[in-house]
Amino acid sequence: MMADTGSDEVAVIGNIDLTPGEIENNMKNTQKSEKGPVLFRKMEINVAEAEKRTVKNAVNMQEIYTVYLIETRPADAASEGTNSTPDSLWRRYSEFEILRNFLLVTYPFVVVPPLPEKRAEFVWHKLTADNMDPDFVERRRVGLENFLLRVASHPTLSTDNIFFSFLTEENGWKEMVFETGFQAKADSRLKALNATFRVKNPDKRFAEMKHYGDELQSVISQLLRVRARVADRLYGVYKVHGNYGRVFSEWSAIEKEMGDGLQSAGHHMDAYAASVDDILEEEEHYADQLKEYLFYTEALRAVCRKHELIQYELEMAAQDLTTKKQQQEELATGTVRTFSLKGMTSKLFGQETPEQREAKMKVLEGQIQEGEDSLKEQNTECDVFVKSAWSDIERFKDQKNHDLKEALISYAIMQISMCKKGIQVWTNAKECFNKM
Predict the structure, then answer these.
(1) Of residues 398 and 355, which shows the higher confidence score?
(2) SS3 163
(3) Residue 15 gets which letter from DSSP?
(4) Dihedral of the CA atoms 10, 16, 20, 24 (nearest 10)?
(5) pLDDT tier for residue 32 given thresholds of 50, 70 and 90
(6) Which of 51, 162, 241, 432 has the fewest C-beta atoms lying within 10 Å of its C-beta?
(7) How far, in Å, CA of 401 to CA of 399, rounded?
(8) Residues 6+ apart with CB under 8 A from 325
(9) What is the 3-state secondary structure (H, E, C) of 380-411?
(10) CB of 326 closer than 8 Å to CB of 373
(11) Which pLDDT score is estimated for 62?
């Protein structure tokens, strides 16, 4: 388990109850935490290895699952050149999902980093889609480590005590996170969808950003499909060179003067064909970089949907306040401007007594005062949410531009290298043929 070293330096803002006004407190903490050091600078975090385990479930059947070893150590140990033993604990993928869901609910104004895929998607046909395949598990291990590093380097998420406990407390962490009641505070999809269609005055910036998220998802999906087809063709080209190697070797056995040259050319072809595994591993690394931002688009849209929901609730509160003020005016003047069942009843069965009208006026005055206070609070919450969310979206855009630029450049360099390797193989083969 993680020792207490350095834990008192981490700001504690995770144990919250997202009642009205407390999202604003979280967003204020965001602004404060941006000035201080993030956890990434205080602690080394690694997902060192993955391990398969087997248990019997509730119906006495065997269940196979994978756990991941998280290792942490103070960053000061590395800078001072000491080799302290890292603290370690095991986590299942489902626990990573719980952590991310908690962060999504607790920090709705943050573009929360995504988890790596739970099941293999956008694969080329030679790659297995088995979740227990060692290559897939290894890639997911790398993705989970990247997720933790993304969170640990975020100015807000890195200061959350639930996240810190996830890294340091193997036992009791689930109970701790569920005690926050975050699941009950999660917005339902139906509620968010209702807000999307019924909000009257959407913020143009968030509407455009949500549309951008949809388009980015579409573009990256197409890129991944093209890449899968390219990987398929690449695999075929390399394997065909393996056939060249086999044919040249067989041919060399029946030739005396040409035999050595044919056999040498065959060896070059075999070596080229065997290198396809390393090339495709690089291809998958590039695909995983794209997939991260494919999943990031959903996190980006989630922030935009939350703003729509806040905006919708604000508009409903304003509409309700307007209705109550109109009722107050109608009671005061004795005139009914709009058709209502109460108005028809009054005409049919007589007007209310002055005492009844005065009592209703007092109730409405109290409701109007409460409505004005609530509307003011919701306006403040919306303003702070917009400021904090847009700040984090700008941070995300800078990160995205940097990461995707590097990924695309690396992919281009890899393709150039592959082409050069192919040219070199055939150049070597030509020299072998010249010596025959």
Answers:
(1) 398
(2) helix
(3) S
(4) 10
(5) very low
(6) 51
(7) 6
(8) 368
(9) HHHHHHHHHHHHHHHHHHHHHHHHHHHHHHHH
(10) no
(11) 82
What's the rounded Cα separation, in Å, for the pair 287 and 290?
5
The Cα 220–Cα 435 span in angstroms is 49
407 with 233: CB under 8 angstroms? no
SS3 67: strand
DSSP state string for 130-144: -TT-HHHHHHHHHHH
Nearest partner of 172 among 51, 114, 89, judged by Cα: 89
Q: How far apart (Å, rounded) are the C-alpha atoms in residues 4 and 205?
A: 44
Q: How does the average pLDDT of the chain come out, rounded? A: 83
- 3-class secondary-structure state, position 72: strand
Tell me if 385 sits within 8 A of 310, measured CB to CB.
Answer: yes
Q: What is the DSSP string of 221-286?
A: HHHHHHHHHHHHHHHHHHHHHHHHHHHHHHHHTT-SSSHHHHHHHHHHHHHHHHTHHHHHHHHHHH
Percent of the chain surpassing pLDDT 70: 82
State phi, psi for 62 to the nearest 5 degrees: -75, 135
User: Could you read off the pLDDT of 178-233 as tens digits, one per residue?
Assistant: 999 988 888 877 777 777 778 888 889 999 999 999 999 999 999 999 988 888 88
Residue of 153, 118, 150 lying closest to 136 (CA atoms): 118
* Separation in Å, CA 50 to CA 93, 282, 367: 11, 21, 58
pLDDT tens-digit map of 371-399: 888 889 889 989 999 999 999 999 999 99
Contact 279, 290 (CB under 8 A): no
Tokens standing for residue 4: 């207490």
- Reading the block at residue 105, the tokens are 């609910």
Query: If we measure between CA atoms, which residue out of 280, 286, 372, 281 comes closest to residue 325?
Result: 372
Match 């988890």 to its residue by tokens. 115
Handedness of CA 429, 432, 434, 436 (dihedral sign): negative
Amino acid residing at 382: C
CA distances from 65 to 56, 107, 121, 160 (A): 11, 30, 19, 28
Q: Quote the tokens at residue 292.
A: 């991260």
Neighbours of 223 (CB within 10 A): 18
Closest CA relative to residue 384, chosen from 17, 30, 3, 14: 30
- Give me the count of residues in the chain: 436
Neighbouring C-beta atoms of residue 43, cutoff 10 Å: 25
**Cα separation, 255 vs 264, whole angstroms:** 13
